[in-house]
Design a protein that fits this description.
Number of strands: 17
Low-confidence stretches: none
Largest sheet: 8 strands, mixed
Number of helices: 9
Strand order of the largest sheet: 3-9-2-1-12-16-17-15
Order of helices and strands: EHEHHEEEHEEEHEEEHEEEEHHEHE
Radius of gyration: 19 Å
Mean pLDDT: 93
């Protein structure tokens, strides 16, 4: 029996530009194919920070040059980025698998995720996206009801909320493909954030943390393992300080204690640890592996990375 694994890919697995992504996913596909050969049935989710920012900037500039075009809202930019990234991953992974004599369908599901319109994140948006703006352009954005933040010495940029995910709308379709052994790419970039109103889904001006949705997706699928691939080979306490210390194994209780001690960076490792805890509380028999793309093969053999369990 194959073991079900949700794999969360960070920026390093995708690159930051169109050409970087084309080359990066070939390397990423090799590591993912190794996991398939090792007996894992994969459901893959991924970041989209650079991609959604690029799309948002492009659509905004298109509007500035051609006034008959309308700027794309964030939910549409999210949908575009899911399709664009999923397309590259599924084609590269399909080719890698076929090259190894493995015939598996690789599919991308355009995924919506509901959020709470009263989530506190909407009152203080923190996610920076899009182009740098002048003060005059920033004032125009403010008049539209959007949020902007000043970047000292560089100008102003749009800021959007990062609410918590509530429900993965297409979870039944994801589960159906997963249950028959297909490789699925879903919830890209955290999913398209939507608000449900009288059975109608309306796009929200927000983004969802991809680590947060990875933990939820793994829990919903009752995955055997959640594998979070990031830029470091394992988890560190006090990362970047004189007291930096690698951590090879953690229980949920120990992880919560370290969070209380503020051992993890808020913008990098903390969301991954929180996702691990959320998944393990939903699936106590599961395991979480946090490592880098380069170390994933050694990590699944217990020779690298950080293992988190109940």
């Amino acid at each position: 029996m194959e073991k079900k694994a949700v794999v969360s890919l960070g920026h390093q697995a995708l690159g930051y530009t169109t050409m970087e992504q084309r080359d990066a996913v070939k390397v990423t596909a090799t590591a993912l194919a190794d996991l398939v050969e090792a007996g894992y049935q994969l459901t893959i989710t991924h970041s989209n920070g650079p991609q959604i920012s690029m799309i948002h900037k492009a659509m905004t500039e298109l509007r500035r040059i051609y006034i008959d075009y309308t700027p794309a809202p964030m939910c549409v930019c999210s949908a575009m980025s899911q399709g664009y990234v999923g397309y590259d991953i599924q084609n590269s992974l399909r080719a890698e698998l076929l090259g190894r004599g493995i015939s598996k369908t690789v599919s991308t599901i355009l995924t919506q995720v509901t959020v709470d319109p009263y989530d506190e994140a909407f009152y203080e948006p923190t996610k920076i996206i899009g182009r740098y703006m002048s003060k005059e352009d920033a004032e125009i954005e403010l008049k539209k009801g959007n949020y902007v933040k000043e970047i000292p010495g560089k100008g102003f940029r749009r800021a959007v909320a990062a609410p918590k995910p509530i429900k993965i709308v297409e979870i039944d379709a994801i589960r159906a493909l997963s249950d028959v052994g297909q490789v699925v790419i879903a919830c890209g970039g955290g999913g398209i954030p939507v608000i449900e109103q009288n059975h109608i889904l309306k796009g929200a001006s927000a983004v969802i943390e991809k680590d947060s949705i990875a933990g939820k997706l793994a829990g919903e699928l009752k995955a055997d393992r959640l594998i979070i691939l990031t830029s470091v080979p394992c988890v560190y306490k006090g990362f970047g300080t004189d007291q930096e210390e690698s951590v090879r194994e953690l229980t949920v209780a120990e992880a919560k204690a370290y969070i209380g001690e503020k051992q993890f960076g808020e913008g990098n490792m903390l969301p991954k640890i929180e996702a691990a805890i959320a998944y393990l509380e939903a699936c106590p028999e599961g395991k979480v592996l946090i490592t880098s793309l380069e170390c994933v093969n050694a990590a699944v053999k217990g020779k690298a990375g950080t293992l988190i369990h109940s």
